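FORM 7B: Structural annotation worksheet

SECTION A. Query
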Amino acid sequence: WVGQKVVAVAVAATATGEAGERALARARDHLPQHMIPSRIEFVDALPTTPNGKVDYTALVSERTTL
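SECTION B. Predicted structure
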């Protein structure tokens, strides 16, 4: 798991830097250190599988750099 980071991906009605900072502050207050995201990325929509569930594999592959 070397080199991996926790990143939150969210869909928000209003995606502003302020909303991301508030969410990170709340995470710092409620989560253990190793679960706090390094950043929050706002997207228009989450990728889904044909069954309509969140496609976690696609989320990771879209954010993986080689």
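SECTION C. Observations
The helical segments are 17-30, 56-63. The chain has a mean pLDDT of 85.

SECTION D. Sign-off
Analyst initials: ____
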